Amino acid sequence: MSEHWLLGKRVPRPDAIPKVTGEAVYTDDITFPGMLYGAVVRSPYACASIRSVDTSRAEQLPGVRAILTPTNSSLFSTEILYAGQKVAALAATDPHTAQEAASLIQVEYQRHRAVFDPIRAMSRDAPVVRPSRSQEFNNVCSHQRKERGDLETGFAQADIIVENTYRVGIAHQAYMEPHACVARFDVSGKLTVWTSIQGQFNVRASLASMLGMPVHDVRVIAPEIGGAFGGKTSLIMEPIAVVLAKITGAPVKIVMSRQEEFIDAHPGPGCIIHVKTAARQDGTLTAEWAEIIYDTGAAPGAPTGNFDRTRGLYRIPNFRYDIYSVYTHKLIPGAYRAPGALELTFAFESQIDHLAGELGQDPIEFRLKNAVDEGDLTVDGKVYPTIGLRESLHQAREQIKAVEHKPHRGIGVACGKWMNAIGASGVILTLNEDGSVNLTSGAVDLTGVNTVLAQIVAEELSISLDQIHVQTRDTDVAPYAALSGGSRTTYGMSLATQNAVRQLKKDLFEFASQHMPVSPEAFTVADGKVVPRDGSHTGIPIRELARIAMYSARGPLTVTGSASDPSWLADSYIFITQVAEVEVDPDTGEITVLRVSSFQDVGFALNPMLVEGQIEGGIVQGLGWGYLEGLVFDKGVVLNENLTEYKIPTALDAPELVPVLIEIPSADGPYGIKGVGEPSMVVTPAVLANAIHDATGIRLTETPLVQDDLSTRQGPLGNM
Amino acid sequence: MSEHWLLGKRVPRPDAIPKVTGEAVYTDDITFPGMLYGAVVRSPYACASIRSVDTSRAEQLPGVRAILTPTNSSLFSTEILYAGQKVAALAATDPHTAQEAASLIQVEYQRHRAVFDPIRAMSRDAPVVRPSRSQEFNNVCSHQRKERGDLETGFAQADIIVENTYRVGIAHQAYMEPHACVARFDVSGKLTVWTSIQGQFNVRASLASMLGMPVHDVRVIAPEIGGAFGGKTSLIMEPIAVVLAKITGAPVKIVMSRQEEFIDAHPGPGCIIHVKTAARQDGTLTAEWAEIIYDTGAAPGAPTGNFDRTRGLYRIPNFRYDIYSVYTHKLIPGAYRAPGALELTFAFESQIDHLAGELGQDPIEFRLKNAVDEGDLTVDGKVYPTIGLRESLHQAREQIKAVEHKPHRGIGVACGKWMNAIGASGVILTLNEDGSVNLTSGAVDLTGVNTVLAQIVAEELSISLDQIHVQTRDTDVAPYAALSGGSRTTYGMSLATQNAVRQLKKDLFEFASQHMPVSPEAFTVADGKVVPRDGSHTGIPIRELARIAMYSARGPLTVTGSASDPSWLADSYIFITQVAEVEVDPDTGEITVLRVSSFQDVGFALNPMLVEGQIEGGIVQGLGWGYLEGLVFDKGVVLNENLTEYKIPTALDAPELVPVLIEIPSADGPYGIKGVGEPSMVVTPAVLANAIHDATGIRLTETPLVQDDLSTRQGPLGNM
After folding, report:
1. What letters, b where the CB count within 10 A reaches 16 and e where it falls short, cover A96-135?
2. Does the pLDDT at position B714 exceed 60?
3. Is A33-112 a domain of CATH 3.90.1170.50?
4. What pLDDT score was predicted for residue B1?
C-alpha cells in the first residue's frame, strides 16, 4: 500500500552489534599516555559562604598536578547555593590519588539559612537564593501567564468545579553511562574534547567562547553514548577538565560517579500545580485556572517554556495559567524527555478524570466531547491543522472495551500532547566509486536516527541498505547539527538527508543526460539505475555513473544537505492517548501495572520497530517517574544518591507494553513524520493515577504514587 | 603587483609543529590491546620452485597465532621470481616472536637458472621470467614505439651523429618511514586499515575488491606519512595484514624493516638507453633514434608510459623511439618522483651536451636553437601552448655568465620537461557559526597541499588564515581523492577547493540578498564581509550570515567541490633548466657539487616557500640518484640493503641550492599553477654529468656517476 519500498520497514539498528558485544567505544574508554584524572570537591551544605580553602595537604600528595579553587579559578564561587555544588577541583596521575587529594582539601564554611520548598521560598521573609524578578514574591526566577476569555464568566457558567494540588517530585534521567569527558590540547594549542553529550556543537561553541578561540580550534568528539534523555544537553565537567588540561599540559579525564550524578546533574524538576477546572453538567468545559510552580533550585534550569507545546488538548473558552519558576537551595534541574510535559499532564489529566468521575461520565466520552479539532486554537492562539487526538481516543475506546473487569483492577485513560523541534541539521553524502554511499552526520545518535537516514538514502536512490554507511563524526568534519533533543533529531536530520539525496539525484540526472539522450528532468531512479521515466533507454547504473563522474571533469560526487528553522519548533502536533491497566493489592496497597497501551500519532513511522522502541522506553520511564522515582532530600541534601535507594524500573518491573502507531502525516515533516523521542513519556503518570483511582477510588496527587497511601486508606477498594 | 592578497605568500606549514615536536601520529604509533604483529618469510633465491614449507616448529612457538603459506593462501606462490619474494607470513603476539617464528619456517627450494640483465633477458635462449609479448625477443613485458618523419632522411641530412649507451641504476626512494600498516576488523565485519600510503582510496578499492566487499565497508586511514616519493602508491603489506587479521580476529600490524624496504619495495627502475642523435653543422637537429630498455624485474612495474610527458624539448623532424620493458629475476620497480623522466633526461640531455661539444657550440645556445616553442608539436603530436623552456634557458645563461671559472671546476646545463596530473579531487567546506571554516580533504598531504588549500579559502573569502582549519580525513568521511602523486595534489585539490569556495560564496550571496536589497550577482567579499560591489550597503560579516543561516530554513552552510579529468594529465607543460657547478679532485676523482640552480616554470607559486622546498628536495634526490645511489646485486640479491651501504645525500652533502621560479600561467590550472612535486628531480643527474664533463672532459654514461671512473682515467682534467 505504501508508496515507499524501504521507508516504513522494520530495519534493525546496525549499532546494536558493537553495543551488545562491548566493542562500542564510550568516553571512559578514551585514554592517553600521561593522562591525568580529575576530581571535584563539593559542598556538604546547601547554603554557605566559603571562608577558606586549604589545599596544602592535597598539594603534598604525590601525583597531584593541579588544584583549582575559588581563589585561582573563576570556575568556582565562594557562595554556596546547594549541597553538592563544586567548590574545588584537581588533577592527579590516577583516579584514586585524585579522590584522595580531594578528600584532603579542607574547606571552612560559614553556613546560612536555607530554603528548600518553592512555595516557602516565594514568601517575602524567605532567604533570598537569587534576586527575584517579581515585586510580589521572593526568589522568582521567571513568571509567565497564558490566558484567554474571562475566567469569572467561565467559572460562573459551570455546574461543577474540581480543585486539586498536584506535586511532582524531582526525577533523575538515570542514564546508564554517567557524564564523562576527556580534554586534550595539542602542541598547536588546538583543543580536543571527548564527551558523553547530546550535542557536540553546543560543547564546541561553549568551550570556544570560554577560551576565546575560533570554534574550529575546538574539536568535540562524542563517542558512543550510554543514554541521555535530556540530561546531557549542557556542559557539566568539560570546563573543569579543559582548564586542568590547559594548566597541566596533559590530557585530563573526569568521570562523574553515580553519587555525583544524583547530587549535581540536572534532573527533571519538581513542580507544584494548583488547578481548578470547571464544567457544565453536560460535560462541556467552561474554565480552567492554574498556578504552576517549578522548583528551579539554585539557578535557572526548570523547563517552563513548553506550556503551549504540551497543553491545549481541550476547548476551554476561559483559562488563565500562571507559570512560576522559583529558586530554592537545591540542585539545578534540566531537561528530562519532553521537559515540562509530564508534570503538567499528570495534573491536568488527573483533573479531567476527576471531573468526568464527578459528572458520572465515561472518561473517554468526556474527553471526546471537549477534544480540540482542526481549526481550534492552541493555548498560544495558533490554529490546529489535522490532528490525531480523536483518532487516538477512538482506538483507546476499542481497546478498553476488550478488557475483562476483575476485582482490584482498574483501567485508566489519559491524553497528552507534544511538538517536536527541527534544529540546525546538515549531512554530507558521498557517492563512492562502486555506487555505495557514505553519509556523515554531526548529530549524536540516541534513538536510531542513523539507521533511519540510511533507509532514506537507500529508498531515494533505490539501492540496497547494505550499500549505505551512516556515521556520526566529530565537529571538525561533520556539518553543524543541533543537539539531539526535543524529538528533533530524526525530523531535522531526515529533512537534511532528503535535501542531500535529492541534490545527489539532481547531479546524477544532469550527469546522466550527458550519456543518454534524455533531459535531466525526465530521469528517475529504479533498481539502482538512472532511467528515463518514459522507458526510452535501459538506463545506467548509479555505480557506473559514479565511476564515470570520478574520471570526468565533473569529479567525485559528494553533496551536502541542510535544514533548520527560525522558530525551533516544527508545526507538528503529536497527540497520544494511553490506557493503563493496574491491580492494587487491597491489603498492602502494592501497585502492579499490568499493561500500558499507547495510541500515538507518529505522523509516519519511518521505522516502526524503532518508533515502538521509543514509545516503550518512554512509557517505562514515565512509570518510573510516576510510581517509583523521586529524589529524597534532607536539608537540601539528596539522601537516595545511588541506584539501590533511587529505584528505577527494571525489565522485570515493566508491564505488557502495547504501542499502537497512528499515522496522520505532518504538514512540513519529511515523509510526514513527527517526532517520537519524547511524547510517549508525557502521559504515563497521569494514566497510572487514573487507573489507580479506578481500581481503588483513591486519587493520588503526588509522585511517586506510593503504595503506602493506598494500603492505609479506609475507603472501599472498588473496581470499575 | 599581484591580484591576490594571500596567494603567492610564504605561509609556513602548520603541520611542521606536530612533526618537529614528535606529536604527529604515524602508522607505527597505532596500537590496540591484543594486537598481533606480522612477519614475512622471503626467498633467498632469485629463481626457484618451492618444494615444501614446513611450519611445524614455528607453530609450536608460544605466541604464534596464524601462518600463511602457498598451501593455505593465494597471497603466496610456489614459483619464486626474485630474491626477497614473500614465501609465507605469520602473526604473533609480539614482533620478536614473529621474527623468531619466521626464522623457524623451513622452506625447501628447487633452484632454477635465472637472468638478471635485461638485454641478456631479451635473447631467445634466456630463461623465461614471464611469457614475452614479443615475437622477436624473450621476456618482453611491453613495447611501444614513438616515431615521426623519416629516420633515414634525418640521419642523411646530418653532419654529425653522436651515439652512446646510458645506464641508470635502480634507486630506492629511501623515505624515512618504512611501509607500515595495521588491519582491524570490527564485529560487524567492517575493515579498518591504517597505512603509510600516498592514496587512501586506492587502498580502499584494492582491499574491497580483494575481499568482495562494498568500498564503504573498508575504512582506510592514512596517519602522518614519513615520505613516499612514489614508493607508497600501491599495496605492499596490507593484504597480508588484512588476511591475518581476518583469520585471527585480532588487529595485525606489519612494519617493514629497512632491509625489507631495499629487497622488496618498488624502487625507481634500472634503464638502458641506446641513443643516436644527429645534427647539421649549424646546430640544427635532424634525427634521433633510441632503444630504451627498462628492467621491470619480476613483474610489470617500470614506468614506461611517460615518454611524451618528459620528452619533446627540441624540434627533431625525424625520430623513432622504441621503449621496452623487460622481465628479469629481480625485484619489481615502481614510481619514483617523475617516474621515467630522470633516466631519459640523463641520456637525452647528455646527448645534447655531447653534440654541442662536438659542434663546438655553447650548450645553451645549441638548446635555444632547437628548443620547442608555442605551436610546435609534442612527441605525441599535441600542440604546445605558451611554454617556459626559452625563458628558463635565458635565465640560466645569465646565471652562468656570473660564475667565475676556476681549475677543476665545471659548469653543466641541462633541460627537462614534465607534465602534472589532475586526478579525482574533492573537498568539503563547512562555514562554522563564528565564520571560521573547516576544510576536509581525503588527499594525503605530502607536500604542504593543506597549507595551500587554507590560503585559497582565506583568499577567496577575504578572511584571515587562522580562521581556516584544513584536515586530511579517512575514506569514510572525506570525498574521494586520487593518490597524492604525479604532481597532481595541489593542482587537483586546489581546483576542487576553488570550486567549493566559489559555491560557498554563491550560497552566501544568495542568502545575503535576502537580508540586503541587492541581487546575488552584485555581491563580492571584502574584509570578511559580503558587500555589494557598488558600495550601496556596508555589508554583513560572513560570520553573521553563517549564524543567521543556521537558524533559518536554509540551515548550516556546508558545500562541496570536486574536480577531475578524463585523461589523467593536465595540459600544463613544465619546463626546467638547471645549472650545476662541480669540482672534481684531479687525483681522487672525488666530485664536489658546489651549487645547483634550477630555473623552473611553476605556473604560479601559490606558496613560494613550499614550491622552493619541493625544488630543493627534488634536486637533492636527483643528486642522490645521480652520483651516490644505486642498488648493487649479486645473483639478483641486493647487497647494499641498508642505509649504511646504500648512501643517500644528507644535509651535509647538499650543495648550495638556488631555486628560481618562472611563472608562466597554465591554461587550465587553478590560479595558473603547475605541478611542482616531481619536475625538479628530472634534470639533476644530466646536469651533473654535463658539469663533470665540463670539469674533466670525461663523459660518464652510467649512474651512479662514480668518482672511480674519473680518478683512473688518463685524460686531461680540463676546465671550461
Report:
1. ebbbbbbebbebebeeeebbbbbbebbeeebbebeebeee
2. no
3. yes
4. 42
Q: Which three cell numbers stand for residue A428?
A: 554530507
SS (H, E, C) B56-108: HHHHHCCCEEEEECCCCCCCCCCEECCCCCEEEEEEECCHHHHHHHHHHCEEE
Grid coordinates representing B638 are 641486493
- Mean pLDDT, residues A482-504: 97
B195 close to B391: Cβ distance less than 8 angstroms: no
Concatenated DSSP letters of A619-631: HHHHHHHHHT---
The CATH architecture that domain A423-563 belongs to is: 2-Layer Sandwich (3.30)
**Single-letter residue type at A145:** R
Instruction: State residue A3's pLDDT score.
Output: 85
Q: Where are the alpha helices (DSSP H) in A380-488?
A: 389-401, 449-461
Q: How far is CA A487 from CA A230, A295, A423, A532, A720, in A?
A: 10, 24, 10, 38, 36
CA–CA distance, A436 with A468 (Å, rounded to integer): 6
Domain boundaries of chain B, sorted by first residue: 33-112, 270-421+567-711, 423-563
> Which is the catalytic residue, given B59, B260, B678, B702?
B678
Q: Do A23 and B186 touch (CB under 8 A)?
A: yes
Domain B270-421+567-711 shares a fold with domain B423-563: yes
Identify which of A554, A512, A557, A552 has the alpha carbon closest to the alpha carbon of residue A536.
A512
Please indicate whether residue A400 or residue B554 has the higher confidence score (pLDDT). Answer: A400
Question: Which chain B residue is nearest to residue A468, measuring alpha carbons?
Answer: B216
ipTM: 0.93
Q: From CA B1, how far away is CA A555, in angstroms rounded?
A: 34
A586 Cβ under 8 Å from any chain B Cβ: no
Instruction: Note the pTM of the prediction, 2 decimals.
Output: 0.95
Angle between helices A489-512 and A449-461 (to 10 degrees): 20
Confidence of residue A709 (pLDDT cuts 50, 70, 90): low
DSSP β-bridge partners for residue A670: none
pLDDT at B603 over 80: yes
Q: Are A144 and A323 in contact (CB under 8 A)?
A: yes
Q: What pLDDT score does A145 carry? A: 98
> Between residues 452 and 471 of chain A, which touch chain B (CB distance below 8 Å)?
466-469, 471
Cα separation, B100 vs B63, whole angstroms: 11
Q: What is the mean pLDDT of residues A594-603?
A: 98
Q: Write the pLDDT tens digit of every residue in A102-145.
A: 999 999 999 999 999 999 999 999 999 999 999 999 999 999 99
Mean pLDDT of chain A: 96
Residue B398 banded pLDDT, cuts 50, 70, 90 = very high
Reference A24, options A14, A35, A34; nearest CA is A14
**B317 φ/ψ sector (left φ>0, alpha ψ -120 to 50, else beta):** alpha
Find the mean pLDDT for residues A298-310.
Answer: 96
Q: Mean of the pLDDT values across residues B499-525?
A: 96
Chain B residues touching A187 at Cβ < 8 A:
17-18, 21, 23
> Residue A711 — very low, low, confident or very high, per pLDDT cuts 50/70/90?
low
Q: What is the DSSP letter of A412?
A: E
For chain A positions 217-276, those within 8 Å of chain B (CB to CB) are 217
Class of domain A270-421+567-711: alpha beta
SS3 content of chain A, % helix, strand, coil (to 5): 30, 25, 45
- pLDDT at residue number B711: 57
- Cell 514568601 sits on residue: A123
> How distant, in Å, are the alpha carbons of A140, A270, A273 from that of A136?
9, 22, 19
Q: Is residue B206 classed exposed, middle or buried when 0-12, 13-18 and 19+ CB atoms within 10 A define those classes?
A: middle
**Sequence-separated contacts (24+) of B372-375 with Cβ below 8 Å:** B372/B312, B372/B313, B372/B314, B372/B315
Task: Please provide the average confidence, as pLDDT, over all residues in chain B.
Answer: 96
Contact A471, B476 (CB under 8 A): yes
- CB of B549 within 8 Å of a chain A CB? The answer is yes
